Amino acid sequence: MNPxxxxxxxxxxxxxxxxxxxxxxxxxxxxxDCLLRLQEAGAKIALASGRxxxxxxxxxxxxxxxxxxxxxxxxxxxxITACSTGKTLFRQQxxxxxxxxxAALRDELSLELLTYEGTCIITEDPENPYxxxxxxxxxxEVRKISSFADYVTFPVTKCLMVGEGSYLASVxxxxxxxxxxxxxxxRSEPYFLEIVPQGIDxxxxxxxxxxxxxxxxxxxxxxGDGYNDISMLRYAGLGVAMANASEEVKKAANRITLSNDxxxxxxxxxxxxxxx
Length: 276
Hints:
Rossmann fold
């Protein structure tokens, strides 16, 4: 990425948790002001997150993405939304028959399973601490259902299996093997196992978005800290990992910035785009 690259020819992809937001799940004024200046200069912003669209929308509004024609990539890229119109530009859903298989695998592995319906998280165990973490991150209500397999008969873009981190790491490969080629399975946090349609990741959805904007991957600047950010960090013209990222994520990036509690996103952007 050329340090003097024009903001008007740049798409900035930002993971949220652990990247754009600090430990309090907030965007600091320093980082917000930097992003507003860049958007005013013509840069486009895409908030790329494993969160459901509902959980990303408040941050998109806070950063004025509807005004500046930014984008939301929710469900790890399973859905792309144009903030200025609310229009869905892309969406892919889990294959037919996925839900009973996921419920059976959950039982086999003694994990908990959740998905999203409107403004609610739905699960059989609302009190599960990791379900509660997901609810807090997205500021969503949790609703108890008696049978996941029986209740979830509507189209779903993503499910989340949750559990203790070291155990989840030990069963991740097995889960992917059992589900097979129709699914992509990876952790976004140590305790979150994302289950999305095969071929869905942040990089592929950003590729779709870049094409619609007549931009190339060299025009993409991506920031992330999690395992589900690795694909976009490798794909981008410049991939930037946060100081708080794991070593595996850092190895996928071109550069390392300061942590999410030290305005790491803004510090790199100010270096690349020294706007007055």
